[in-house]
DNA sequence: TAAGAAATTGTTCAAGCGTATAATAGCACC
DNA sequence: GGTGCTATTATACGCTTGAACAATTTCTTA
């Protein structure tokens, strides 16, 4: 019986492909659909190869979760420009593609549901969450002081918690039921609400956006 | 070989117990841990009985999801009193026990992750979500008009979306990392934020709470 | 171009899965 | 206190799962 020909890939590329295949499986069929065999089919290899790269199925899932968190946070954490623009970009990025879509939510929820079950995932989660909120708190502090507003640590902390919640919640709503909202309606609501919470305008005249 | 003795339970009670056992399994071990055998063990019966009450495993999961949604929304939708108190209670209920805890989140996330995969669950989800947001929109409309503020449908819609998002997000934060917040800190942040968004006070002098 | 390292395949295994069904035991009713 | 109904148990079946491992192929390098 003829053995199938195969391509010998660099380790980094192969690991990446396997993780990508894992995410595809989870997004399409849920965590239950992410079996080593399904992942292998999706990646175009055989099941045995997965255990050549990952100690166990748990390990590939942990790596996959790291990738999911990175994709959800990396863009927003690298905003540039003046404090106002950084804050606005942070908001917009979190509520538009590719961060906000049903696939992201599907992946996120799949892993979140295991965070309380799997201590390894809990560690990965906690890191991502704190880093995200700290980034937001920094943006707020910069913006508030630039505008000469109260930027005390206590106020920044509370505002960061509230605005983090607001962004998370609107992200959720958009991902779960994007078709219930008009184009960029959620972004508009977010910007208006955050302006109100901060007591400052985020869309000053003359700033084309 | 001695057959184990058993109790012949009323249908409603047995179905309730089986669903409760299902939720326990999901909360403890994730959706993957909710196998018919595990559920049966948790409920103190044998696996075969589950298929006597539920057409398939899918069906018991659907029923279980209905229960989860009901528990997350029923208390908040039955608030009473004047518009202000109803709104405040709505907020507090959603951010405190038993709605806000890690078990609730675990269950919610488990099902949410399957909403995009399973059309039956998607229907159940959509109903619950719309009913929740409508309830909030009604509370806001009542409260705003009582206070003589702008209660136009467009404003109520946008405020409901924003406040729904804020509550969802803070609920998430509290469930995921309750120990990062002081006792009732999230409730305080929610009340303050919503007062700011509405431009009205929710804690008038003389209202003991 | 031969050899050796290791990436990849193909096969096997025991365990656990959802489902099906026959046997049994609890309970209501006469 | 039988009798009949059916809730419940017990067992079996076919499949899929994660894992293990030997066989094979590719690629590097000398």
UniProtKB/TrEMBL annotation, chains A, B:
SUPFAM superfamilies: Homeodomain-like, Tetracyclin repressor-like, C-terminal domain. One of its GO terms (molecular function) is transcription cis-regulatory region binding. InterPro entries: BetI_C, DNA-bd_HTH_TetR-type_CS, Homeodomain-like_sf, HTH-type_TetR-like_transc_reg, HTH_TetR, Tet_transcr_reg_TetR-rel_C_sf. Keywords: DNA-binding, Repressor, Transcription, Transcription regulation. Residues 35-54 bind DNA. The keyword Zinc does not apply. PANTHER family: HTH-TYPE TRANSCRIPTIONAL REGULATOR RUTR, TRANSCRIPTIONAL REGULATOR-RELATED. This is AcrR family transcriptional regulator. It comes from Shinella fusca.
């Amino acid at each position: 019986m003829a053995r199938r020909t195969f391509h010998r890939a660099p380790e980094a590329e192969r690991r990446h492909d396997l993780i990508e295949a894992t995410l595809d499986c989870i997004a399409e069929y849920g965590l239950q659909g992410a079996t080593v065999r399904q992942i292998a089919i999706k990646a175009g290899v055989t099941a045995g190869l997965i255990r050549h790269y990952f100690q166990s199925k748990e390990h590939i899932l942990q790596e996959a979760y790291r990738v999911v968190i990175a994709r959800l946070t990396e863009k927003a954490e690298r905003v540039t420009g003046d404090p106002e623009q950084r804050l606005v970009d942070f908001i917009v990025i979190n509520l538009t593609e590719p961060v906000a879509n049903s696939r992201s939510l599907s992946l996120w929820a799949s892993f979140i549901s295991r965070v309380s079950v799997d201590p390894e995932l809990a560690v990965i989660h906690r890191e991502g969450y704190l880093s995200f909120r700290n980034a937001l708190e920094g943006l707020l502090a910069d913006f508030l002081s630039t505008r000469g507003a109260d930027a005390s640590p206590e106020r920044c902390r509370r505002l960061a918690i509230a605005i983090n919640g607001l962004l998370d919640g609107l992200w959720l709503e958009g991902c779960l039921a994007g078709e219930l909202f008009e184009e960029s309606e959620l972004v508009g609501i977010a910007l208006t609400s955050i302006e109100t919470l901060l007591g400052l305008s985020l869309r000053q005249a003359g700033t084309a956006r």
